[in-house]
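In response to reviewer comment 3 from the previous cycle, which asked for concrete evidence that the modeling workflow produces usable outputs, we include below a single protein chain processed end to end. The sequence was submitted unchanged, and the resulting structure tokens are shown without manual editing.
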Amino acid sequence: MVPKGSTAQLRLNGESNGLVRAWYRDKVAFTSTLAKSLTATGAGLVPLSTVFVTFNINPGQPNGGPDSGFKTEQGTVKTHNVVGTLPADAEYSPLWRVVAYDNNSFGAVNNLTTVLAAPVLVPDAGRVNCPVVNIQ
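The workflow returned the following structure tokens.
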């Protein structure tokens, strides 16, 4: 659910960024459409994909974790955050389980294989709704 008037600035393959009206607890609510229909798991849960992220200051250190911002290549906004699935994958979900890896591995991480070799600091740092909108 999103506030009325919200927009999704970016969408994969030119999908609509408009809102859809829905019923929630006997009231009209607004949501954006997902590029892919999701089917609950056998346990009745929403399927999740994994995104591996690292921060300027590692979680557990003073001022560390999300508040310190994502670590980026010097002078750029390029992170070494890595998604485990892409929209074309059968198991893809725009809903992510966030895994934080050690920022000391930042220089060695550039794909799924290398991030899986990085030390994990927080195996379940939260859930976010973050659809893939660009693939390079």
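Residues 59 and 65 are 4 Å apart (CA to CA). We consider this sufficient to address the reviewer's concern, and the full set will be provided in the supplementary archive.
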